[in-house]
Amino acid sequence: IRKDPKFKPDRKLYFDYGTLGLDSRIEDYQQKLNKILLAHGFIDDSNFKVFRAEGAEHSLASWRARLSLPLQFLFNPGR
Hints:
Elements: E1 13-18, H1 27-39, E2 48-53, H2 60-65, H3 68-75
Parallel strand pairs: 1-2
């Protein structure tokens, strides 16, 4: 993994995907991205978070059902 000095853990990132339909193809790519983030100093569940929504699909209804998760992670001042 090539390190880019401009890419550093000075922000919070949230990733969310389901396990059904189109989202079922995301897991392998997410694992690769996690490795890149960790190599650049990001800390899982601190400045990046991944939520795998078991049994969920790529739809507005699915996202709406779990909207509180990214909002809490990204905007909770105590985190």
